[in-house]
Amino acid sequence: MSNFITNEFPASSSAAWKQKIQFELDGADYNQTLLTKTIEGITISPFYHLDTFEKLNIPLPKEHCKICTKIKVSVEETANIEAFKAIEQGSSSILFEVLEPFNSTILFHNLLQKNIEFHFKFHFLDEKFINNLILKLVDETVYFNIDIIGNLARTGNWYASQKKDFSILESLIKKNPDSFIISVDTTIYQNAGANIVQQIAYALAHANEYLTIFGGTVANKIHFNFATGTHYFFEIAKIRAFRYLYNLILGKYNTSAIAKVCSEPSLRNKTLYGSTINTLRSTVERMSAILGGATTFVNNYNSDIFTQNQQPILNEICTFRKAQQIPTDSYYIEYVTKQLSEKALTIFKDIEKSGGFLTQLKEGTIQRKINENAQKEQHQFDIGELVLLGVNKYPNQYNSEEDVQITTTLKGKAYKTLIIPILPKRLAEKLEQKRIKDGA
Amino acid sequence: MERKDFSNLEITVHNKKDLIFEHEDYIAGIAPNLRGIHATMYFQTPLETKIATDSFSKKNTTPEIELSNFLIESLNYIQKGIDANISIDIIVSELSFTTKIGNNHIDEIAKMRASRLLWSKLINQFNPKNQRSFALRINARIETCINAFQAILGGCQCIISKDKKHFFFEEETGILKTIDPWAGATFIEKRTEEIATKAWMLFNK
What is the ipTM of this complex? Predict the structure, then answer.
């Protein structure tokens, strides 16, 4: 390449930049005006430059990110039709959320051998049913996403008991060593208000419980689920930092893996009366997941026009060749990736030192830590430091129809739990409830 | 299986990039202003927004053609001013780059970076006295709010839009907290170099 670009102007440096900044600040304080401290305890500089470049070598997947549509199964025929519609609209992957065993012949009618990837989210654990389903889907790419520890974290209970759950899981893995049986579902940590460093650390510690019991051979058959928020560059770095650390830990098991990572939009920042802004939020979340190197991104089944308008832009990003490599060598993203990795590794080591994730979950330590961060974040939101448009800023300017995908509060029957469950909590809930009350 | 001991695990940091471009150490606020026209960018000079009341009919073209056309138009305007004995600093104080932001995320970011660089190159030929003359103001016209994303990431000064939905990017995504956040990424730097080189070649023809 010719040096025509650089032949007229002298080279510059970060020192020159800093000097020019002081001049422009005209006496204002550099730290107070230009530095941003995040809830993870990371300081964002106003600029990053080649002079201070640092990075980690991130193992990246080779495949494109698949776009997945989430479909709730209550009637098999309806779910089958919805799956067809989603595929027609460009989805290459379907996630079926199921509450009870279903008729797989009806659900998968004409859906097989079409190069569609299938995911499941089971709200039950039934060994015989899952074994039959594995047989039925033997020629397909399937993620069964069985996460007994995640279920304990989410609901406060085992499906049956710790012993029974682990024995079912072990028998499923032994019988189907090539299938993706296990998942580590970290979405609840994000949705309950854990910060990004905590999410990475918990993902690793959560996974390490399975590795400790089943050994390193399951390492590349674990499917990871993340929820992605709108802190764009940090979310890109989150998946990268996780990939790096997962491999670092696997070194102890004398193995390595390029993890399958499935991402979905966070629930935490969504607002009840903001379906338009919610779609923008999810769009940004989807972009950061794709650039971060997620292998699948999940959307809710949605037929609204606004989402369809965003589709061409997203397709552009999705089909961008090697999207997962775009962040490589970006000064800022590499810096954040390193910072997140360092901090998450420290938390992971602490958890391991005190007996592991399951122990800390049973003791309530994880719940307490998440709660502490969630409250800090809620406070930032309450005083307006953290903004959700249409809720705590410009509350009447972004009204749009109610977003049916957002449940106001999580009401359910009270039930006894073994441990304190980790529950999702949206930042906007309190203000929205007040608004409903005032309006009524 | 026994619990592994992770206490001695450490991360390994590298400080070598895969690829370094010649233009990479340019900064913001000093010509050629590759990374922005102010050293403090949005911190001291907040992003402006305007509501579009008219329609903007600029043909969709490649970033290279768009930039070379902009340079040609600017040169003609400057030439007329100079012929009328007006100083270069006064002539260019009137000029800015109004561009329609399309869907190609990476290209649009690279286009804005390249436009600042080429503008500095063009202006340099007229030996301006005022450093500010080297700085190109960019006004980004957007059709759908998602396009504001690439406009901000590319470092525009003003967003012209039909509504205010794009405030979302400023308020919720944290992308204004650092200047020219995509700098260094091979994909972005390479595309910046390609667009700049080709646009300058077309302009010189």
Answer: 0.97
